[in-house]
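Worked example

This section walks through a single chain of length 127. The input is the sequence exactly as stored; nothing has been trimmed or padded.
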Amino acid sequence: MAETKRVVRPLSPHLQIYRPQMTAISSILTRITGNGMIVGAILMVWWLLAAATSPAYFAFVDGLLHSWIGKIILTGSLWAVWYHYLAGLRHLWFDAGRGLEIKTAEKLGWGCVIGSVVLTILTFFFI
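Given that input, the structure is written out below as tokens.
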């Protein structure tokens, strides 16, 4: 039987060489924001359950939500809702067979990121 020579090849591009693409980052952010919305929803349900339990327990939970860490979590959840919404619209656009060119997909990814930040800020001003 003939001997085969093994060629040593890299398995994949190394992280120091590979430049992350906006389409991949956008996909990852969509998954992260989906999980982030769960955290915000759990906090809101906890707040509602505390309101139904007792005034003292509600004051405790309400104090947590109005603390700096609670405001950061709720702001992050609001941003996650806006980002997830815009990414969903982008995905529907892709499903229609539009915007699949690389440059257009990258612009739509940046549009989701920038648009979600702008909509989060606008939500603070109007609510």
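What to look for: The helical segments are 22-53, 55-65, 68-95, 102-126.
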